[in-house]
Write a sequence for this structure.
């Protein structure tokens, strides 16, 4: 375990998390959040959990941040989208996360180069042990988390599916109850009443 | 420390996206604590718990972002206080 690398990565994690909280722009906050997650992954690698570091980068910094970015870009749609995008490309937006990520990359390269030459630390827990524990005493937890993921899939699909038809039905109902539409008056006239009778 | 920052972000910001990000930070801090404890006692249980936290975070963020989109389409704002008047 490399103590200096640990403290550098920890400092970067704390700094980027502070910047996530402080930043006004959602896209910039997401960039800093990605750097924070990657620095936590470096801490994992330093603590002797290389498989967890890979999972952190793939799942957190990969899929979850991409999900956030999708939502931010969907909510940004409109007139200001193009000028917001032009603002994103200015150097002030991405120079801070780039510098911090470059520090992390250098640190990781240093540790990789050093780890190949010297013997690995004694406290490294290989993925084999993790797999044996995961499918041994924690098998019930695996099944429960699979049920949780299934529920999340169904819930997210349900929430996204009702998004389109809901305003239409609301509008139709409102039109139907408040003001007599043309279709309704046609029915009224067809049944022998005048439209203004209601 | 990271967990405290996540709690601070949750309390300070009123934007729903930032609240979700703070929840992610807190889950990440909990996972970091698990990994550190597992490394300290050289057990694999900490990493198993981190895998569970990862699965839970993925599930939570997908449902949370779907709810954020839904609230945005109803309220036209991402303010958390705008959703305080919702009725079933």
């Amino acid at each position: 375990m490399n103590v200096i690398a640990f403290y550098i990565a920890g400092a970067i994690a704390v700094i980027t998390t502070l910047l996530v909280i402080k930043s006004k722009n959602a896209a910039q906050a997401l960039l800093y959040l990605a750097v924070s997650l990657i620095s936590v992954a470096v801490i994992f690698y330093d603590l002797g959990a290389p498989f967890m570091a890979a999972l952190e980068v793939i799942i957190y910094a990969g899929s979850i941040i991409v999900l956030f970015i999708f939502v931010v870009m969907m909510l940004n749609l409109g007139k200001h989208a193009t000028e917001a995008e032009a603002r994103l490309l200015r150097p002030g937006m991405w120079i801070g996360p780039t510098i911090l990520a470059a520090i992390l990359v250098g640190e990781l390269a240093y540790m990789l180069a050093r780890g190949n030459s010297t013997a690995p630390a004694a406290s490294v827990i290989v993925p084999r042990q993790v797999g044996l524990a995961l499918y041994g005493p924690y098998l019930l937890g695996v099944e429960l988390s699979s049920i949780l993921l299934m529920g999340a899939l169904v819930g997210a699909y349900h929430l996204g599916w009702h998004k389109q038809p809901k305003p239409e039905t609301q509008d139709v109902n409102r039109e139907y109850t408040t003001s007599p539409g043309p279709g309704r008056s046609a029915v009224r006239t067809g049944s022998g009443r005048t439209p203004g009778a209601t | 420390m990271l967990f405290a920052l996540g709690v601070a972000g949750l309390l300070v910001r009123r934007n729903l996206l930032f609240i979700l990000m703070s929840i992610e930070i807190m889950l990440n801090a909990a996972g970091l604590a698990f990994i550190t404890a597992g490394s300290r006692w050289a057990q694999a249980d900490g990493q198993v718990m981190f895998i569970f936290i990862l699965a839970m975070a993925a599930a939570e963020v997908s449902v949370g972002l779907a709810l954020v989109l839904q609230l945005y389409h109803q309220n036209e704002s991402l303010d958390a206080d705008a959703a305080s008047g919702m009725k079933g």
